[in-house]
Amino acid sequence: MYEKAGFAPADADRAAATVFVHVLGSAPGAAAQVSLTRRLGRSGDPEKEPADTMAAATEVAGNFPRLRERLGGTAATEYLAAPDRTFEFGLETILDGFEAQPAGTK
Questions:
Q1: Model pTM above 0.70
Q2: pLDDT of res. 81
Q3: Which residue from 84, 26, 82, 27 is spatially nearest to 54, judged by alpha carbons?
Q4: Rounded Cα gap, residues 10 and 71, in angstroms
Q5: Dihedral through CA 17, CA 23, CA 28, CA 29, nearest 10?
Q6: Which of 15, 16, 51, 66 is most buried per CB count within 10 Å?
């Protein structure tokens, strides 16, 4: 596929490895969220503990102007939605970068 897109064989291998590493690197976050939810369900309240942690993090973030600005954003209010969109964004960015490569450098 990468060679058909104009990449030389060695660059095609690097492009495939780049996508693979992105996919592989994105999996632990989702797995960690599932694990945390299960663990909290056994040892405590799976909704209260994350809410308490977010409240404490919000209090600390309030001391830093750039973090304070982001408190109302997606990362703060829709934590579980962020990983999926983050993965898509990263993959699209990688593929867009491949597409933007000048034909002579592929």
A1: no
A2: 54
A3: 82
A4: 44
A5: 140
A6: 15
